[in-house]
Fold these 3 entries.
Entry 1:
Amino acid sequence: MPALFEANFGIPDTFLYAIVFIWGAVIGSFLNVVIHRVPNELSLLPSSKCPKCDNGIKPYHNIPIFGWLMLGGKCVVCKNPIAWRYPAVELVTGLVFVLTFSQIGLSAFLPVALVFVATMIALLFIDAEHMILPNVITYPLFVAALAVRIIYPIAIEGARFSDMNFAPVNYLVGYPEWAVSLAGALLGALAGGGSLWLVGAIWKALRGVEAMGLGDVKMLLGVGALLGWRLTLLTIFLGAFSGALVGVVMIMKSKDRDLQTQLPFGIFLGIGSIVALLFGERMISWYVSNFIP
Ligand SMILES: [Zn+2]
């Protein structure tokens, strides 16, 4: 969005981006609470405590990123180190919010996109730390994605999700927009959750080991419902590609050649789905125009 706000409202774009970044960092500090407490089934009520000694943290130490820097990465009371994950999640969320805002712009879809990327950030950090993708996040993600796919075409004139312009969803002629959108969402969920489930089942049959948890499958139900089948298959491709790359590097660096460690695949799916949401349509059309005659 080049200089849109400067031209139209007299607000410098850099100022607007700074606000979006700060807002993202504040959401990031809430995501830290989610990442720490949801897998441990603790309450999400806002009360900032040192994760080790439970001592309250002063409000000014709660300022995203800077609070951690002011504390020198240590709790004032017990001097235990506070994980670098805290400022990292705040920084990442701030940057991803800026990126999302720059790609989506001020549109009715922006709130959905921001909630989606925030959810992906929470899931990928939870998977990295705890090796699980909690149902309390993946189930509501799926339900919310279906709701968005039904409500948006009804509430917003001309709102279309990108998969509705492509086969086989665009074959549905003469049905109301919300029904076409819902059909696209269900197909996307099937493409996402179904293909991951199938890969897991085949792997289990061949190797006799669980290749991935059902958490990944449930996560991709929600991603698939919102993004549609094309961007979801792109998400899986990006996730598998980057996951394989990291996996090969890890195996090469490790002494143990038959490494059986499970990579938390949710990390790569989370990153893949954010890339697919923001850049996916352009990536697909670039690929199609260059490689498909
Ligand atoms: Zn402490």
Entry 2:
Amino acid sequence: MKKTETKNSAVLIENLDKYLDGKQILFGINLSIGSGEVFGFLGPNGAGKTTTMKAILGLIRPDAGTISILGDSTLSNETKEKIGFMPENTYLYKYLTGREFLRFNGKFFNISDTELDERIEEILQKVGLETAGDKLLAKYSKGMLQRIGLGQAIINNPSVVFLDEPMSGLDPIGRKMVKDLILELKKKGTTVFFNTHILSDVESICNSFAIIHQGHLVASDSVKNLDKPLEEYFIEKIHENTEGELEVC
Ligand SMILES: Nc1ncnc2c1ncn2[C@@H]1O[C@H](COP(=O)(O)OP(=O)(O)OP(=O)(O)O)[C@@H](O)[C@H]1O
Ligand SMILES: [Mg+2]
């Protein structure tokens, strides 16, 4: 495993460029997320949040730049064991029950059957699906699918979790559940990187945030440094950086 020098960065991205269909999507993205931090990644639709997350996770290949997770820039199997990921559009096996789906995902990790059984029950409860564990995913509602998708992201008790819009499509109780779950992960020292459009959630649960606009990072800071509501700050940054006059941070 190739270790980078930077200490305490759970996720480190340097000068990341990505092209898709011949068009540049990401322009020299730099991000450093400290170990145990909850980081909110913001930006308008189509800004490049999901593309950045996919590049970090090795699901797409960067055209330039370096990425390291937990000090490993090679994304070794050892590191992958410590990562959890909830994609934007979870591909779910509709003819598995919720419980079977969690077991299926858990089998990719080095977890004993007994521990896996315990984790499955714990997770079903955490995501509010304790009474739906034996129901087929084909019969889950949108929000229930979102919940089980979140559940599979933490099946391996990860050190770093990537969540692509975990609150989207959830009712107020579901949103509160996700927030509580992220806060519980934070308390345990888990690093959480999540893409979101819900600015109030970033204000209430994140340590740090960044804003991406048209593939450029236009802001990156600690939540505690905000001297105005994040909504106001966000709109200002997007306006300042629209129409080719990007003031990249
Ligand atoms: N497979 C692809 N091929 C070509 N272009 C793509 C592909 N996937 C994404 N893009 C483009 O890359 C840009 C960034 O998309 P991305 O999905 O990263 O945005 P996002 O910030 O996650 O948006 P949202 O908030 O809507 O989820 C968009 O212009 C999109 O059209
Ligand atoms: Mg997205």
Entry 3:
Amino acid sequence: MLEITNVHASYSKTPILRGIDVSVETGEIVGIMGKNGVGKTTLVKTVMGLLEADEGRIVFDGEDVTDEPADVRARHGMGYIPQGRDVFPELTVEENLRMGETINDGTDDLQYDAVYDYFPILEERRDQEAGTMSGGQQQLLAIGRALIGNPELLVLDEPSEGVQPSIVQDITRDLRRVNEELGTTILFVEQNLHVVQRLGERCYAIDKGAIVDELGPERLESRDAVTEYLAV
Ligand SMILES: Nc1ncnc2c1ncn2[C@@H]1O[C@H](COP(=O)(O)OP(=O)(O)OP(=O)(O)O)[C@@H](O)[C@H]1O
Ligand SMILES: [Mg+2]
């Protein structure tokens, strides 16, 4: 579904990504783990079209999107949950969710029922200002906003950041349910051990802008194998 081949990217003249190869099959949950500042967000932004690749190719659903802008990629079915969530604090929960409709306007198949089913707190709080909710609730809102347009692929940038541990477990479980029931393919970047081990079916390790390892289910179960790539 997603094929990233030899992708290089930089800020001004500073090279950050140095030949990234990552592939994600339809229906998979794939993680990319790495410490602070190794290029995780840069990679996610390049995948979403928010940063231009200097070199390499990004193919989504059989189409070369390397030169497509972010809004076109979104309409192709790529849903994005940015690091730090970026919900609109002054807007209500429901108004934030409606923003998801305009991002993915390629579909008539809006998922309000599903989103409220997975995250009942969003229905309970639909008239509340988003900025008054906890970090974990805002994360659910950002996920819900991305799901409204029924994307084929969800791309999450550190969903556990700023979320208390018990809620991190709930989010991990909810994302697995979304994957199983809606069939949404998931690509996430993380440095949280729990999320890497519990959410990822397969996980790449990134360091200094390059993929340095790939862990299948067995190695993912080993705490030592995973922590080698995390700052824990
Ligand atoms: N807008 C920018 N302009 C210049 N350099 C940047 C910019 N954003 C990030 N960088 C640099 O690029 C490198 C990779 O940053 P990136 O944000 O991709 O890392 P990350 O793995 O997402 O880190 P974190 O875990 O802290 O979110 C870092 O050295 C960072 O300082
Ligand atoms: Mg980051």
